[in-house]
UniProtKB/TrEMBL annotation, chain B:
Stretches of the chain forming a coiled coil according to its record: none
Species assigned in the record: Sinorhizobium psoraleae
Pfam family, one: Fer2_2
2Fe-2S ferredoxin-type domain boundaries: 2-78
PROSITE patterns according to UniProt: 2FE2S_FER_2 (PS51085)
Domain of life: Bacteria
Protein name (Swiss-Prot/TrEMBL): (2Fe-2S)-binding protein
Gene3D superfamilies to which the protein is assigned, alphabetical: 3.10.20.30, [2Fe-2S]-binding domain (1.10.150.120)
Length: 782, 162, 265
């Protein structure tokens, strides 16, 4: 592998700038004449806008202008869209209500943007925003999705009667029902998946710069996919044609899904820059982030799992209600459908599955993909159900899983997915060994002597990454293709630039992508630059989400490297008067195999550009591009085991051990992979133990609007983790990689809840398992 | 408007700002030192941690005028002569950062923590001392590891010097 | 934050003079609560008078068992005072767990007491220790000082200059933090003096702020042991219910934290 090649634990190239304060995030950008935007937001969850009076605000010190939805509409700025069409089981298309970047008639959740103030300073803009008089006519509010579907409830959008967006199904209902009727045992569970706020530490920000000289726009923004932002802002929001719009996502401080979407603020900053004639910067504060960043999860499900007399699963029936909030965000429709129900087979051979999903509007923030996106919801449902079934059937949770594991590949599930490779028992065995599962009884007894309740729980997850084969997702309703692009540019001195459509916002692409090049050509990674995040510098690409940068983004780089290698070998063969097929590339040299003849890499590159002596008919230069469209999803899987101690007096849960055993396929940089798992685990543990978005059901006010009330995992909430991998290479991409970004967040919540419920002897517990809930559940069990 | 003078990263600087201007904004906007970040409004995330007169503080909860006359160190002032500070080097070696946004605050916190506790730091103390710094990427695992490694190395270096 | 005017005082006298000239003046101690409140635009003082540079308000003196802590002494300095640790380690431990290290470097004991946040730690200690709150014009017994949520007996413009108390034979503080804010969801400070006098002060739980639990005190005066707490009933009707904890759960926490504080004292 070499010290910097594939598989090496290389320290990150990008670290120095972050460690020395030289990272450049959107809010760090400053351009001459720049002014500041503050949004006037609805304080009400549901209201009609009678009038907006900005007269007083416009007179305030430092104010450049105050703009509202009427002007935005007059300028032809379009509605925000959902980019994935889902049809209900009756064949009707999903009911997409209008989402204006600035609400001009109705506000539908607390935080809905109504107007924007542009001023010399943030403080002055905020002063003036308070002076914008908006006259609201209050409407009744509904925040609960079950209630929202009932008759007589407030209606959010005229298109969606009873607030139902779609009523969708997947799988064979008749076969599933028949198997349940014939079952030896049926486990029934009700599952709540709590609503979360993604909370990347960098709040969203946007800087819109309109250049009247060229009639050109530049947008710095906190995006995971700047090209997608440009495409959507151009094609749907009518901000500017693509050739007149440059989108730059510089350093981005975490995303976790929440920065995939194109929000009202970046559209408004661009538009306001043209309107006011000054560059306009907006930076979100944390409370605005809680109010307006797309939330995640928020499912209510009922589950029936049927077993035969030998404890083999014969069917799974799931009915899910997903709260999508006030508007359909960009990918909101595919998260509770194709990213969720398609994973309901888990690691198990289940002959019949049927899922019904209803999605609902409520007066809450829009809900969309958050780390894992649908797959955590599927895994939590399945693994809580498996645990419950094991307890009901009186067999060990590991045994029940072993009985039902899929053991031959490829495996076609009843819910679309075709699993290509995996060894689920290997992960289970590795996790149980690392956790000393067999020693648990002794540890429990020891804890008992200290008055503590100790419990252990496991979860076996599978996810689908590497989004995704374009024709497949197209047939399922996706509005875009999910390929990725790369361009490899070898400079005349032999240094290399790789332009990738993947975006790095913590994942370490500047290192791992460079490792691919180092591995291929034997050049130092310091001679390789990874360029991303700027639509002017990089060819069209689809961006980073769904753990796709390895399986799709890197595969595109590999394809481009193949082309560069082929041309480099041709040039070297010509220079050394050797046969092209005899050229090998090692340690930065192109050698003629079996001889002592060689040309240094840089000399070959120079020859490509001087073009004095190239093979006849060859174009000068050395630069190759590629687009890679995957042929299948990838299927990372693993087993997580959590051990807890519950203080029965207070209900406080301490995680005393957390083990992760994953199968990610081949690994480019184990250090970075471990870091991804750690971070995912913390978010999954956060969901299970601490985090939850709460709205007041009467008023629709957000009750968890700051870190005073939304419990973020902190260092002392978490243990050090024991992580390991046992890998089966993915057969469907050139690197054999699967993806590792979301696994931790997918597999950990059920392991933790299974452990706590084991400790307290009460299986009824919802996330987040706050001390009070655990205390009450522990007492109810006694 | 106030005219204020303070020492930042060893250099005396002056500037004019509103009395209501927060120290973090003075550092970022007036001085152009954008390594210090703002991640929350309620003084909890710690992305804004700097050192004021030798102690770690949250620059989002201090007015710039309050800091007049003080000596400030920001993340930009930590590396000397192009060499990473041992805490910075440990964060790199142990992958104690991902997106980098909380990193300046984490590093400044770690330097202060090690100054107060020395090489006697243990994992539980590090985790407890990190109460005022939130990271969403790393799960803290490698941050804790990096701080312990830096404390050991700096303690060792101190002993060697004595 | 709304506009404001900043003034720096170098003496108590100057501070009082500065604030008397202000329309809506506020003293600024460490600012760890006030600045945050102003950022949220929930406070809008026309003027701020900074007390952080008044030397006479800083420092800890211990004479025998008599303790005096200057109001502008930071939580960090309280937590790390060896003199104080020798006579009343409980208050050092309490200060060492307020907020986080950065907050402790700025926040002051006087600021915390004057703010009287219902979930703050110091008010419980003051009440249980029977401390005297010394101001620029008088001395106020802690029992008379904390008058309600964010309410104190302080007059407008009055400055806390120090707090004073006699170190007890035994004392300890135990808190159960709110998982989000890390403020006390319930905190209990227990004190036992050589004469058998017992105080149990509770913060974070009461709907009108810090309070003494007389039944706990009586039970512990009879029998200073964690077991004595078991049979005391805690009335939940005057306790807070919020997003994070119900009154019934807080009632339980009062018992558990009292028990643990007694065991630790």
């Amino acid at each position: 592998m070499g010290v910097e090649g594939i598989g090496a634990r290389v320290a990150r190239k990008e670290d120095k700038r972050f460690l020395t304060g030289k990272g450049r995030y959107t809010d760090d950008m400053s351009v001459p004449g720049m002014k500041y935007a503050i949004f006037v937001r609805s304080p009400h969850a549901h209201a009609k806008i009678r009038s907006i009076d900005a007269t007083a605000a416009k007179e305030m010190p430092g104010v450049i202008d105050v703009l509202d939805g009427r002007q935005l509409t007059a300028d032809g700025i379009g509605n925000l869209i959902c980019g994935w069409m889902i049809h209900s089981k009756d064949g009707s298309p999903m009911k997409m209500g209008a989402w204006r970047p600035l609400a001009d008639q109705t506000v539908r959740y607390v935080g809905d943007a109504v107007a924007v103030v542009v001023a010399d300073s943030v403080d002055e803009a905020r002063d003036a925003a308070e002076a914008v008089a908006v006259d609201y006519e209050l409407l009744p509010v509904v925040t609960d999705p079950v209630k929202a579907m009932a008759d007589g409830q407030p209606q959010l959008h005229p298109e969606a009667s009873n607030n139902l967006i779609f009523d969708w199904q997947l799988g064979d209902a008749a076969a599933t029902d028949a198997a349940i009727t014939a079952a030896a045992h049926v486990t029934e569970v009700k599952i709540f998946n709590n609503r979360l706020s993604p909370n990347p530490m960098e709040p969203r920000a946007a800087l819109g710069i309109y250049d009247s000289g060229d009639d050109h726009y530049t947008c710095y923004t906190t995006s995971q996919n700047p090209h997608l932002a440009r495409l959507v802002m151009s094609a749907f929001y009518n901000v500017a044609p693509e050739n007149k719009l440059r989108v730059i996502a510089p350093d981005v401080g975490g995303g976790f899904g929440s920065k995939i979407y194109i929000y009202p603020e970046e559209i408004v900053c661009l538009w306001a820059s043209k309107r006011t004639g000054v560059p306009v910067k907006w930076t979100c504060d944390r409370t605005e982030a809680f109010l307006t960043d797309a939330h995640g999860r928020d499912h209510i499900s009922t589950v029936k799992m049927a077993f035969d007399s030998s404890n083999r699963i014969t069917a799974l029936k799931v009915d899910t209600i997903a709260n999508l909030g006030a508007y359909m965000s960009l990918f909101s429709s595919c998260v509770p459908t194709y990213l969720y129900a398609t994973l309901l087979s888990g690691q198990y051979d289940i002959p019949a599955i049927h899922a019904n999903v209803r999605t609902v509007y409520t007066n809450t923030a829009p809900v969309d993909a958050y780390r894992g996106a649908g797959r955590p919801e599927a895994t939590y449902l399945l693994e809580r159900t498996m645990e419950t079934a094991a307890r009901e059937l009186g067999i060990s949770p590991a045994e029940l899983r072993r009985i039902n594991f899929i053991r031959t590949f490829p495996h076609q599930t009843p819910v679309i997915m075709n699993y290509d490779a995996g060894d689920y028992e290997a992960s289970l065995n590795a996790a149980m060994a690392a956790a000393d599962w067999n020693g648990f009884a002794a540890r429990k007894a020891e804890a008992e002597r200290r008055g503590m309740k100790r419990g252990i729980g496991m979860s076996c997850y599978i996810e689908a990454c590497g989004l995704a084969p374009s024709s497949a997702v197209g047939s399922l309703g996706a509005g875009v293709g999910l390929w990725e692009s790369a361009e490899v540019r070898v400079n005349a001195v032999g240094t290399i630039e790789v332009m990738t459509g993947s975006h790095s916002h913590g994942q370490g692409h500047e290192t791992t992508f460079a490792q691919l090049v180092a591995d291929r050509f034997g050049v130092p990674i310091d001679s390789v630059n990874i360029v991303h995040g700027d639509t002017d510098k990089v060819q069209m690409g689809m961006g980073t989400y769904g753990s796709r940068s390895g399986a799709v983004g890197m595969s595109a780089v590999v394809k481009a490297l193949d082309k560069v290698e082929a041309k480099a070998k041709k040039i070297a063969a010509h220079l050394m008067e050797a046969d092209e097929s005899d050229i090998v590339i090692e340690n930065g040299e192109l050698k003629v195999a079996g001889t002592d003849k060689s040309v240094p890499w840089f000399q070959m590159a120079l020859a490509a550009y001087t073009a004095h002596n190239l093979p006849s008919g060859m174009e000068p230069g050395l630069k190759e591009g590629a687009f890679y469209d995957p042929s299948n999803f990838t299927f990372p899987a693993g087993c997580y085991i959590c051990e807890v101690e519950v203080d029965p007096d207070t209900g406080r849960t301490e995680i005393v051990q957390f083990v992760a055993a994953d199968d990610f396929g081949n690994i480019i940089n184990p250090m970075i992979v471990e870091g991804q798992v750690h971070g995912g685990l913390a978010q999954g543990i956060g969901q299970a133990l601490l985090e939850g978005v709460h709205y007041d059901p009467e008023s629709g006010q957000l009750l968890t609007a700051s870190y005073m009330d939304y419990a973020m995992p902190r260092a002392d909430d978490l243990p050090s983790f024991k992580v390991s991998t046992s890998n089966t290479p993915c057969p469907n991409n050139p690197l054999g990689v699967k993806g590792c970004g979301e696994a931790g967040a997918i597999g950990s919540p059920p392991a933790l809840i299974n452990a706590i419920t084991d400790a307290i002897g009460n299986n009824t517990l919802t996330m987040p398992a706050t001390p009070e809930k655990v205390w009450a559940a522990a007492h109810a069990a006694n | 408007m106030a005219k204020i003078t303070m020492t930042v990263n060893g250099r005396q600087v002056s500037g004019t700002c509103d009395d209501r201007t927060l120290l973090v904004h003075f550092i970022r906007e007036n001085l152009g030192l954008t390594g210090t970040h703002v991640g929350c409004d309620t003084s909890q995330c710690g992305a804004c941690v700097i050192h004021m007169d030798g102690l770690s503080v949250k620059s989002c909860s201090i007015l710039a005028v309050q800091a007049a006359g003080s000596s400030i160190t920001t993340i930009e002032g930590l590396a000397k002569d192009g060499e990473l500070h041992p805490v910075q080097a440990a964060f790199k070696a142990h992958h104690g950062l991902q997106c980098g946004f909380c990193t300046p605050g984490m590093v400044m916190t770690a330097v202060d923590m090690i100054a107060r506790h020395g090489s006697g730091l243990d994992e539980a103390t590090v985790r407890s001392e990190l109460e005022g710094n939130i990271c969403r990427c790393t799960g803290y695992h490698n941050i804790v590891k990096a701080i312990l490694a830096a404390a050991a190395e700096m303690g060792g270096a101190r002993q060697a010097a004595e | 934050m709304y506009e404001t005017n900043y003034h720096r005082a170098s003496s108590v006298q100057e501070a009082v003079k500065l604030i008397s000239g202000a329309a809506e003046g506020k003293y600024l101690a460490g600012g760890m609560t006030l600045i945050a409140t102003m950022k949220q635009r929930l406070a809008a003082p026309s003027d701020l008078v900074d007390l952080r540079h008044i030397a006479e308000m800083k420092g800890i003196t211990v004479n025998g068992r008599s303790v005096r802590i200057g109001a502008a002494t930071t939580h960090h300095d309280v937590a790390s005072s060896a003199e104080l640790e020798a006579v009343c380690p409980a208050i050092c431990a309490l200060a060492g767990h307020i907020g986080d290290p950065h907050v402790r470097h700025m926040g002051t004991i006087g600021g915390s007491i004057a703010n009287n946040d219902p979930a703050a730690d110091f008010p419980a200690a003051m009440l249980a220790l029977d401390a005297t709150i010394v101001t620029n014009s008088r001395e106020i017994a802690a029992a008379d000082f904390f008058t309600g949520l964010f309410e104190t007996a302080l007059n407008d413009d009055e400055i806390i200059t120090a707090i004073a108390f006699e170190a007890p034979a035994k004392a300890a503080y135990r808190k159960f933090p709110n998982p989000a804010s890390r403020y006390a969801m319930t905190g209990v400070f227990v004190v036992r003096r050589d004469n058998g006098d017992v105080r149990v002060a509770v913060t974070g739980a009461g709907s009108s702020g810090v309070f003494r639990h007389r039944d706990m005190e009586a039970a512990l005066a009879r029998n200073w042991s964690p077991d004595a707490v078991g049979n005391v009933s805690v009335d939940a009707s005057d306790l807070m219910t919020d997003l994070h904890a119900s009154a019934a759960y807080r009632a339980n926490l009062i018992k558990v934290m009292t028990k643990r504080a007694v065991a630790a004292a």
